[in-house]
Amino acid sequence: MSSRTHRILLAVILGIYCLLAIGYGVTTPLFETPDEHLHFFTVDFIAREHRLPTTQDAGLMGQEAAQPPLYYVLGALLISPVDTTGASEHLWANPRTDTSAVAGQLWTNPRADPGNIRGESLADPPINVAMFVHPPDEAWPWQGYALAAHLLRLLSMVFGLGTLLCIHAAGRVVWPDDPGRALVATGLVAFLPQFAFLHGAVTNDATITFFSAAAIWQLLRLRLQPATTGRYLLLGLTIGLAMLSKAAGLLLLGYSVGVLGLLAWVQSDRQRWRETARAAVLILIPALLVGGWLLVRNWQLYGDITAANQFVEIAGGVRPYSLRQVWNDMDRVWLSLFGLFGWMNLQAPAWLYIVWNAIVVAAVAGGLVGLWQAFRNRETRQTRPWGIAF
Q1: What does pTM read for this prediction?
Q2: Partners of 347 in beta bridges
Q3: In the 8-state DSSP scheme, what is residue 29?
């Protein structure tokens, strides 16, 4: 495959993704994705008040008032020219699911049945899948809060585009002699319905997904290409931005340092251990410089560097949840990997899940074959990343 053909195919994949994400963003009624209204009003608060919220300000922001602020600050800069005055007055919510202080003042959709996917005709009267009643203000041409919400959906789409570019870059690192595989990996994610749906909504998941993909690409590059001080610092910066995107950024920091430690352990070389210690410092410094202030702020405000205690409190406190209940919910979790729309209560056609489950089975089988070949061929183990034959 020529480089020109490769670029054209990549552009086609990215272009189709943009059309899909924009299509979901245009056709999905406002706030009909999980917690989208909470994310929107968090952005709106920052745009209006010019400061970060706390859980004392929660109101229509709910638990998102305690979230790391990067997505919301970027969104506030984007919608600041838009007049969103009175946006909360247009939120017609179901009071059974809205826990905000003003819930009793809102118009309601008494026929909403969000969160239930176990039924044959969920969209049939007298029950429907919409969480909100949608006023004419949402119609095209968008103005006010509707325009602001659609601009934020475009912001999510852009972060999704960045994620796909990172996946493609990672594929080129792993398979330098087979660029077609990088295109396949990028296309699989780009055409995953849930990916496009998520990036057609207002959500901070778009930022943490992007920075996680960027960090994984950089880790692969550090493993398979010459490692430099600049690359370690860039990885630390990426992790710091991830920490400002969602609390899971802290897990990304531990994961990255852990991967470097695992590589040093596998090689069992003192020099490698010294290099790993140096790399960990080079990663930690920018990560903590960029994201550390948020940990301090959370500790000062909530006594918890992750602010997780605020999420628990807003959700009603600690509640017992058995392993059986977790298992019973796994069907919804598994479906949401491929395509579960609305408030996780609107399924795609059955054939879509069959296709994507088949892809998962093929991927698992391919991975097991690769591991088996690696164990059978020591040379493969020495020349391929992590001993796996790709």
Answers
A1: 0.86
A2: 340
A3: P
